[in-house]
């Protein structure tokens, strides 16, 4: 496996975007993220290729000016991150941290600890560029199985060894990550009922909460007004970069 950046291999851009990932249909790629982040900061977009040159994992990140105070990280996590980077870049502020927007692995490759390896690659890349921290609005991988549980309650669960019960949060903590706080409205996705039916195959014919496959919380449906809204909570996690985590 080789980890490359789009700055090194701009020809891998299409392969990175077309890579099969486990995101549900109602969370489509964000054109603004792809356009601005990829063009402005290709050195922070990582691609993992196998021995045949096939893209098997990717990581998208953008830098921003963070004062190190967890309270200043927005409750609208993912949705706010790109705007923060754009504003800080335009204003010429000192960009102190790298925000990891996505780490995705081709289905079937997760068992090889690919997620942990590319997380380490993101941290190493940020360290090389002089950032103090990697932070990210993390999507816990097991939360979808308990959509009615609050994110705060879910994140508080630990195993007997003290590590998080959630597998993806556990990878972060083992890599030296610090769980800072929940961002309760990290990603908001709205659509007509026809769109939601196409995305999920569900009828969406009654008012109220609807449990949708892979969603971390129920989708709120309003039949009278022909729309449904999904508000996804994530978890802000920090990886300080002063030292490499012990192996």
Q: Which H/E pattern describes the elements?
A: EHHEEHEHEHHEHEEE
Helix content: 25-40%
What is the arithmetic mean of pLDDT? 93
Described by the principal axes of the CA atoms, the overall outline is globular
Radius of gyration based on Cα positions: 18 Å
Number of strands: 9
Largest sheet: 9 strands, mixed
Structural class: alpha+beta
**Which range does the strand content fall in?**
25-35%
Number of helical elements: 7
Distance between the termini: 20 Å
Low-confidence stretches: none
Description:
It is a single chain. With 247 residues, this protein is α+β, with helices and mostly antiparallel strands. The chain is built from 7 helices and 9 strands, in the order E-H-H-E-E-H-E-H-E-H-H-E-H-E-E-E. It has helices at residues 13-18, 31-40, 77-91, 114-128, 151-155, 167-174, 193-200; strands spanning 2-5, 45-49, 55-64, 97-105, 133-138, 178-192, 208-210, 219-222, 227-240. Strands 1, 2, 3, 4, 5, 6, 7, 8 and 9 form a 9-stranded mixed sheet that branches. It is globular. The relative contact order is 0.16. The mean pLDDT is 93.
Give the topology, please.
Blueprint: E1 2-5, H1 13-18, H2 31-40, E2 45-49, E3 55-64, H3 77-91, E4 97-105, H4 114-128, E5 133-138, H5 151-155, H6 167-174, E6 178-192, H7 193-200, E7 208-210, E8 219-222, E9 227-240
Parallel strand pairs: 4-5
Antiparallel strand pairs: 1-2, 2-3, 3-4, 5-9, 6-9, 7-8, 8-9
Short note summarizing the structure:
The chain has seven helices and nine strands, in the order E-H-H-E-E-H-E-H-E-H-H-E-H-E-E-E.
């Amino acid at each position: 496996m080789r980890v490359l950046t789009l700055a090194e291999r701009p020809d891998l851009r299409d392969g990175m975007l077309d890579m099969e990932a486990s995101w549900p249909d109602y969370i489509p790629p964000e054109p603004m993220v792809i356009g601005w982040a990829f063009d402005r900061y290709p050195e922070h977009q990582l691609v993992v290729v196998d021995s045949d040159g096939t893209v098997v994992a990717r990581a998208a990140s953008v830098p921003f000016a963070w004062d190190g105070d967890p309270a200043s990280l927005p409750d609208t996590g993912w949705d706010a991150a790109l705007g923060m980077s754009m504003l800080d870049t335009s204003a010429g502020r000192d960009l102190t941290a790298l925000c990891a927007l996505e780490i995705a692995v081709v289905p079937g490759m997760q068992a090889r600890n690919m997620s942990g390896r590319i997380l380490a690659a993101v941290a190493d890349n940020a360290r090389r560029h002089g950032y103090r921290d990697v932070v990210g609005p993390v999507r816990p991988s097991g939360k979808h199985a308990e959509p009615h549980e609050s994110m705060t309650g879910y994140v508080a669960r630990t195993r007997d060894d003290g590590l998080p019960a959630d597998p993806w949060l556990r990878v972060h903590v083992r890599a030296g990550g610090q769980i800072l706080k929940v961002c309760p409205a990290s990603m908001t996705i709205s659509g007509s009922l026809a769109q939601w039916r196409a995305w999920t195959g569900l009828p969406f014919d009654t008012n109220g909460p609807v449990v949708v496959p892979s969603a971390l919380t129920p989708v709120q449906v309003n039949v009278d007004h022909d729309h449904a809204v999904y508000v996804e909570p994530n978890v802000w996690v920090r990886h300080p970069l002063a030292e490499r985590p012990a192996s």
